[in-house]
Specification:
2 domains, Aspartate Aminotransferase, domain 2, 4-stranded antiparallel sheet, 7-stranded mixed sheet, Aspartate Aminotransferase, domain 1, 38% helix, 12 helices, alpha/beta, 13 strands
């Protein structure tokens, strides 16, 4: 069997049509979109088409979409731009304990600037308590940033409930890191009253180095970069045209509802097989409608996650741990800590992340090798 790639939450393989589209831009439509000649105008049209493709999927006006250099940059533009604009109205910002580092590190920075930062706790499933959020909200709150889908466990936050709660406050923006949600779950941006929504191409079989940000036309955020007026001045500089058109092409090939349903069923079946046949295991991803269809997080006792990753790699299976591992210090994932799993499981965490092409036969092979490797490693470790 060829290699089996189950690390799609980290990045995805380029779709063949994305490669073809990008090659055409690199070879033929290489003009600067700001140039007045035909090559420049062709590039500008391609950017316009990509913007419209993304806007159509998330059901917003194309004028509200800007392109950035990555999902991390989109988060920075959104959060810093919102805080800089609104800090005259208040001094409190709220996020969760399980956000991506590209959000948490920004909030940690603003702690050093004297801003009151609240990190909402989560329950064992990774969900925030709406009542706790309500208790923390006040007229001093200027920003709430909560991810749609957690990148480690796949848990889905109740965005519409959160958005409806925030909508009654003045001078308060709602930012959502939608990077793991795009193409995996439906997010109703308007219904959830989302002001800022971050996205990334390389999670949906598009290229690395390109992201995008929805900015509600009814709000104003400050620009944190300075230069020319590309992307309304929020991300100035000559556009990464091949990357942008690659993003615009990739989003045309996101999974259908039927494909997402199939992916979810495969994930649940795989989780059940692990639960029923391997001892000392804990499934960290909610196995119901509270989680996205592509992510399954599992912890095993008496074995280390990074060792399992490398042993499975020998079987041409590519997965990841739930944390960046280091032998020099405790690097248990902040997400795993936040959901409060028992200590005996923390070092043995794995994340399996699927795409629409994964088959039952492949997952059966992965399970067989997983089970064999765990038995061998546990025996070695005594």
């Amino acid at each position: 069997m060829d290699y089996i790639y189950l690390d799609n939450a980290a990045t995805t393989k380029l779709h063949p049509k994305v490669i073809k589209k990008m090659n055409n831009m690199l070879s033929n439509n290489f003009g600067n979109p700001s140039s007045l000649h035909r090559l420049g105008i062709n590039s500008e049209k391609e950017i316009k088409n990509a913007r419209e493709n993304i806007a159509q999927i998330i059901k917003v006006d194309p004028i509200d979409i800007i392109f950035t250099g990555s999902g991390t940059i989109a988060n920075n533009i959104a959060i810093k731009g919102a805080i800089n604009r609104l800090k005259k109205f208040g001094n409190k910002i709220i996020t969760t304990q399980i956000e991506h580092k590209s959000v948490l590190e920004i909030f940690k920075y603003y702690e050093t600037q004297g801003i009151d930062v609240i990190y909402l706790p989560v329950n064992k499933d990774g969900l925030i308590d709406i009542g706790y959020l309500k208790k923390e909200l006040d007229d001093d709150t200027i920003l709430v940033s909560i991810m749609a889908v957690n990148n480690e466990t796949g848990v889905i936050q109740p965005l519409e409930k959160i958005g409806n709660l925030l909508n009654s406050y003045e001078n308060l923006y709602f930012h959502v890191d939608g990077i793991q949600a795009l193409g995996k779950i439906e997010v109703n941006i308007k219904k959830a009253n989302i002001d800022l929504f971050s996205m990334s191409a390389h999670k949906i079989h598009g290229p690395k180095g390109i992201g995008s940000l929805y900015i509600n036309k009814d709000i104003v955020i400050d620009k944190i970069l300075h230069g020319s007026n590309q992307e309304k001045g929020f991300y100035p500089g000559t556009e990464n045209t091949p990357g942008i058109v690659g993003f615009g092409e990739a989003i045309k090939h996101i999974p259908t509802n039927d494909e997402l349903h199939k992916m979810k069923n495969l994930k649940l079946s795989f989780a059940k097989k692990i639960q029923n046949n391997i001892t000392d295991v804990k499934i960290n991803t909610p196995t119901n409608n509270l989680s996205a269809p592509h992510i399954l997080n599992v912890s095993f006792s008496k074995v280390k996650g990074e060792v399992l990753v490398h042993s499975l790699e020998n079987d041409n299976i590519f997965i990841s741990t739930g944390s960046a591992c280091s032998s020099k210090k405790d690097t248990t994932s902040h997400v795993i800590k936040a959901i409060g799993i028992p200590d005996k499981y923390k070092e043995g965490t794995l994340r399996f992340s699927l795409n629409k092409d994964i088959t039952k036969r492949q997952l059966d092979y992965v399970f067989e090798k997983l089970q064999n490797n765990i038995k061998s490693l546990r025996k070695i470790m005594g």
